[in-house]
Automatic annotation (TrEMBL):
Entry superkingdom: Bacteria
Protein name (database record): DUF2007 domain-containing protein
Segments passing through the bilayer: 98-117
Keywords: Membrane, Transmembrane, Transmembrane helix
Amino acid sequence: MAQLLLKLRNVPEDEYLEVCQLLNDNDIPFYETNVGFWGIGVAAIWLNRDDDLPQAQQLLSEYMEQRQRQAQADYQAAIESGTQRTWWSTFSQQPFMFILYILIIGFILGLTIMPFLSL
């Protein structure tokens, strides 16, 4: 019976392709399902053979750990090089939109809190 390996909802395209390549490189047969026309299916990667599940889970776990380490290293490199987005960089790039968003947030907070202040 087929075994579910990975649900593909919110999985980036590059990660999906790398997981497929990882399974192909290790000769693990799999197939993919999509959500279908109405969007009620499960987009996922399924294994054809039950006995491949432990090996595939181990490979996927190692891949996810490596991907997490790479993402953390990229984040640290962006912080050190000054390219990581901050509040100040957002304000300096788009001051009008930044102020507009702050005003909208303040307006919504004011409307939300106003009934409690009149008690």
